[in-house]
Design brief:
Two copies of one chain form a homodimer. Chain A is built from 16 helices and 16 strands. By secondary structure, the first copy, chain A, is of the alpha+beta class.
């Protein structure tokens, strides 16, 4: 019989253990932080009715949707984000969930994107949201969660950039450009890429802005300085417009609140040039930048929205939430050398010398695990050199060597696989405490 | 615009937080135990080339496969188990992985099953396998992992039933029925359901067994007693046949090995009636039964196989592994009242009285989290009664109450939401240690 070629689909990838271990670590940290704020886990099906998925999607997401007919002839699709499923979920289970509803959802999504751009067609999202609350407290907590998350990942040099859609919206109302806000936002979003002149031209061409209007928009988007200076510069631009004034006030309150919660003032930075989520966000918006790698873009982004589930329910559900850019963050932490050192799930390899002694090895491994030390027992007797080669290749921290001589002497060799040094520790087939202590000493080095 | 009805597809379900929390807990425990033995995490795409998925599948899985054409016109399908992806994965990455290769894989699979049977079309599998090892050590570890897993889940009264495909195989060789082993296994598998007479009839009808042959097969499948008695009864039935003798010897070695590793003798039970995995398993097979709920069937099953990836590579890859029945186990633990008591990810609700004091609440919450206590801050000022109602409904363990009076007095009320009792603890806006200590006291009760 001819062999089938083992291969993955274009745009999809396997995660080998060395890629999966840091991935699981980041997800664990995110979950721990989300939970410490009371966000609750949910999950939804990968497959949804097509009408649910296409209801809100843009033309672009519609085109990227994996869709087909299921066995019952239903038109179905694979979810392309976790926001549409959240909206459907909240609308469907509203009664049972109650409000406020805080959830996190860490799950896979699929988009048939053009892989030429280096993007994958299957990736994981790590979202958290607070639904049913208009109070700014929830917006502040969004920033605090992001702050705690990066600290828990061992990253300290990052900036949470904050803006408010009401600020630009208010100014556009003042300028009489409110009906062209989407085009204005699209243009402003390109400031870093195409510069002031380019944005001015696009504002004129796509939003019909006069040169004076374009100047005002650019003045807003170019405001720089510390948070106090930014607030001072924003106030006159929105003065007299309720939307804009309210936006600036919320930004001022947010800055004070995150400081009260202990976040250094330089880490949360007002940035009027941020304009993410064209038609979705309505209030505070945040992006997060790793200062050592600013070019990779935002690694955690989110904001406030007015109406989560308008397609599925008449109840207006405001909310605020953000999403961790898992793949981007993983690549960044790898580049910065910030991924955890552990390369093996269990730090210790117990070498196996001697078939008839199998049960002695199984017993020692069990005792070490009971003492809290993860142990992989090499699963067959083989030359020690081969086993140490395996230990080295896999990246174990320590190897335990017990041959006939060691068993006879009531000893175990604990090899430090980083330094190459070896310690001799008593083990007589009973208590494995001395070995566990020596391994712990190595792990703490 | 007409609303879209928010609903899930037939056979699919949402996980609300109360269902998701125990699910995450079991998965966490499984991962911790798998890792303590050195099993490494991997992940593979949900979508695979159809030819990969249909290569090995039976007619039944083929029929249940979710299949469609992707954007590039490729025939693709959603994985229906984690074994076929593992085989493809190992064949594809063999060079990089090396052998032995120990992996765990916790991921969703899809089968368009008939939902009349109460089964879902999307469910999670939690597999672990050791590839590239023929030594019995790996088989023993499979049983030890299952043992540790249930103990870590707080279950002590379970039985790991063990059989060996070589035992029945050897006897069938002796009887001259080796070419009809699949039909024999199918018949024996029904022993509990249709009884001895039923099995005897099926053995005659479907496997062409003589009454004497059927008697021998039934004698084997009906062996009972402790492990020593079972081994003694098996030996004569396979005597003179190498396959059968080797199977019995491996069972004897396995029983001795798990005992050496500290597992009580009654927990691992030889059971010659187990005949799972008709054409897949080739050596040791295990099933796990919760003794308090024997009727729900096996909650962790697995075994040894000779050739994992024969469809994709000419290299013979033997292995051994098992799978945790997550959904079945969840249902069982719920029925037994063994799920963790915690209903909220953060144990404490901090009530918010007073808008202008928002920053004081944010500060207190931050300090408690820094002290290791998870805190959900009620995200808007509301009547205390409403907030306590929320706390009750969600199942928080404690609520913190600080109104103007408490702030003025430098105090915080810590309400025990189980007993209704309340303790007054000092808090002056600084160190939150006294509150953290009181909460910890409640959590340890």
């Amino acid at each position: 019989m001819a062999l089938i070629q083992p291969r993955t689909l274009k745009g999809f990838r396997d995660y080998l253990p060395e890629a999966m271990m840091p991935r699981e670590w980041i997800i664990d940290v995110a979950r721990r932080v989300y939970r410490s704020y009371g966000f609750r886990p949910i999950d939804t099906p990968a497959l949804e009715y097509l009408e649910i998925l296409t209801g809100k999607g843009s033309d672009e997401t519609d085109k990227q949707l994996y869709r087909f007919e299921d066995h019952g002839g239903r038109a179905v699709g694979l979810r392309f984000d976790l926001t549409v499923p959240l909206a459907r979920f909240v609308a469907q289970h509203q009664q049972q969930l109650g409000l406020p509803f805080k959830r996190y959802h860490i799950a896979t999504v699929w988009r048939g994107e053009n892989t030429q751009t280096g993007r994958y067609r299957e990736f994981m999202q790590c979202d958290f949201d607070t639904i049913g609350v208009t109070d700014l407290t929830a917006d502040v907590e969004m920033a605090l969660v992001v702050n705690d998350l990066f600290l828990a990942l061992g990253v300290e040099d990052f900036t949470i950039r904050v803006n408010h859609r009401g600020v630009l919206g208010g100014m556009l109302e003042k300028l009489g450009l409110a009906d062209r806000s989407a085009a204005v936002l699209r243009a402003v979003d390109k400031l870093a890429k195409i510069g002031r002149q380019g944005v001015a031209e696009e504002l004129s061409r796509a939003a019909g802005a006069t040169p004076a209007q374009a100047d005002d928009v650019l003045a807003l988007a170019s405001i720089a300085g510390d948070n106090e200076q930014t607030l001072a510069a924003l106030k006159p631009l929105v003065a007299g417009n309720a939307t804009g004034e309210c936006g600036v006030e919320e930004l001022a309150d947010l800055v004070a609140a995150v400081a009260a919660a202990g976040v250094p003032a330089t880490r949360v930075k007002l940035d009027p040039s941020i304009a993410r989520g064209l038609d979705y966000y309505t209030g505070v918006v945040v992006e997060t930048q790793l200062n050592e790698l600013p070019t990779i873009g935002s690694v955690a982004s989110g904001g406030r929205y007015d109406n989560l589930a308008g397609l599925y329910t008449n109840q207006k559900l405001p909310g605020v939430g953000a999403s961790l850019g898992l793949d981007r963050l993983l690549a960044a932490l790898e580049q910065l050398g910030r991924l955890p050192a552990a390369k093996t799930p269990a730090p210790v390899l117990l070498c196996m010398f001697d078939g008839p002694r199998r049960n002695d090895y199984l017993k020692l491994a069990a005792r070490l695990r009971a003492a809290g030390v993860g142990v992989e027992l090499y699963p067959e007797p083989k030359k020690l050199g081969k086993q140490l080669q395996y230990a080295d290749r896999q990246g174990f921290r320590a190897a335990l060597v017990l041959g006939d001589a060691e068993f006879a002497a009531g000893q175990c060799q604990v090899k430090d696989l980083q330094s190459g040094a070896s310690a001799t520790v008593p083990y007589n087939g009973g208590d494995a405490g001395a070995i566990a202590a020596e391994v712990r000493r190595l792990l703490e080095q």
